[in-house]
Design brief:
It is a single chain. By secondary structure, the chain is of the alpha+beta class. It folds into two domains: 13-179, Thiolase/Chalcone synthase (Peroxisomal Thiolase, Chain A, domain 1, 3-Layer(aba) Sandwich); 185-336, 3-Layer(aba) Sandwich (Peroxisomal Thiolase, Chain A, domain 1). The protein is 33% helix and 24% strand. It is built from twelve helices and 13 strands. It has helices at residues 2-5, 28-32, 39-46, 60-75, 99-107, 123-136, 160-163, 212-216, 226-247, 265-272, 286-291, 298-308; strands at residues 13-20, 24-27, 50-53, 84-88, 113-117, 143-149, 169-176, 182-191, 199-201, 222-224, 255-260, 317-324, 328-336. The strands form three sheets. It has a nine-stranded mixed beta sheet, with helices on both faces. The longest helix has 22 residues, at 226-247. The protein is globular and about 55 Å long. It binds acetyl coenzyme *A. Acetyl coenzyme *A (ACO) binds at residues 37, 41-42, 45-46, 120-121, 160-161, 164, 199, 224, 226-227, 229-230, 233, 263-264, 267, 293, 295, 323-325.
Length: 339
């Protein structure tokens, strides 16, 4: 019955979504008491009003787990039905083993392979590209793609230029070949490692292993050249959006919903200019206001909220576009395939 109702196609689709945000809210007013900043500065420069902070004993794999449970329930499948878990994160529980393996255990996903990918804030789009192809070439049936971040673990709450920007959160989705959901039509990816120094965690890897000196110099925190990152983010997300439209012979007006990476409201507005046919409520920006920049998780959280609000109509196209450390960037177009 299911197969007759939803025409079989060879496209991978997102058949379930979920997200999880920790309970603790850190408002701009709270930050005013911690660093020399103001609600007015933060809102006017970023659009962020508050963000969520994971509990001290709540880790990236826990956020991933809670988002995954919702995605599995939404897709009406169990942990054992998953044959591959991909976790996109730049704040893994450990450098190794992967957070995906910790998640595999929590979910009792005993039939799944599991690994992490690292594409910073573009992680969800990179994961979509990978999962789409692995499902379409029939290597895997049900892939759980999770983006989860405990950014508060690498934010310096004495540095006003970064601590106001980031928050914790997770999103998850199940990608399969058949079923009711959102067809993944195309994904494009890009990178520019020459610009790596603009946004990085300098210590903790093989180049600068953890030492007393790296801790004293604050090298385990996020380091960011905000102005340069801003310019690259706008340019790269615009270009990626155009590339993915071109790949599908589409134009801007074919897009019904725009979900850019939720890093900064001004960056979202700059991308939205290209899609001037869209009324403001079709450019998703609520996540950055409520949760700040949740890195890889942000697009998945926004998408989950939009799906659950039941506003998307059948055959409407949604454009995702993301940008992050690396530099990395990407874009994807998906289409709702059910009423
Ligand atoms: N409160 C008050 N003043 C501040 C704060 C703050 N929280 N932070 C910086 N300032 C000050 C600066 O010290 C500077 O003061 P000065 O002029 O006396 O030197 C002044 O505000 C202006 O600083 P700028 O850095 O020029 O401010 P800008 O308008 O560029 O905004 C911001 C900074 C919000 C970080 C912006 O550059 C930005 O959004 N960049 C992109 C960040 C981003 O999206 N990163 C993530 C993408 S990738 C990923 O998601 C991991």
């Amino acid at each position: 019955m299911e197969k007759q109702k939803f025409k079989m196609t060879s496209k991978a689709k997102i058949i379930g979504t979920g997200s999880y945000l920790p309970k603790k809210v850190l408002t701009n007013q709270d930050l005013e008491k911690m660093v020399d900043t103001s609600d007015e500065w933060i809102v006017s420069r970023t659009g962020i009003r508050e963000r969520r902070i994971a509990a001290p004993d709540e880790y990236t794999s826990d956020l991933a787990y809670l988002a995954s449970l919702k995605a599995l329930e939404d897709a009406k499948i169990k942990g054992e039905d998953i044959d591959l878990i991909i976790v996109a994160t730049l704040t893994p529980d450990y450098i190794f083993p992967s957070t995906a393996c910790l998640l595999q255990h929590k979910l009792n996903a005993k039939n799944a392979g599991a690994f992490d990918i690292q594409a910073a804030c573009s992680g969800y789009i990179y994961g979509l590209a990978l999962a789409k192809d692995l499902v379409e070439c029939k290597s895997y049936k049900n892939i759980l793609l999770v983006a989860a971040e405990k950014l508060s673990s690498i934010v310096n709450y004495k540095d006003r230029s970064t601590c106001v920007l980031f928050g914790d959160g997770a999103s998850a989705c199940v990608i399969s070949l058949n079923g009711k959901g959102f067809d993944i039509n195309a994904v494009v990816l890009g990178s520019d490692g020459e610009q790596a120094p603009l946004l990085m965690q300098i210590a903790g890897g093989s180049r600068n292993p953890a030492s007393l000196e790296t801790v004293e110099k604050n090298l385990h925190y996020i380091h960011m050249e905000g102005n340069d990152v801003f310019k690259h983010a706008v340019r790269r997300m615009e270009a990626a959006s155009k590339d993915v439209l071109d790949k599908l012979n589409m134009v801007e007006t074919d897009i019904a919903w725009l979900i850019p990476h939720q890093a900064n409201d001004r960056i979202i507005s700059a991308i939205a200019k290209r899609f001037s046919h869209l009324p403001s409520e079709r450019v998703y920006r609520a996540v950055v206001e409520k949760y700040g920049n949740t890195s890889a998780s942000s697009i998945g959280i926004a998408f989950d909220e939009l799906v659950k609000a039941e506003k998307i109509k059948k055959n409407e196209n949604i454009l995702f576009t993301a940008f992050g450390a690396g530099l990395t960037w990407g874009a994807a177009i998906i289409t709702k395939n059910y009423e």
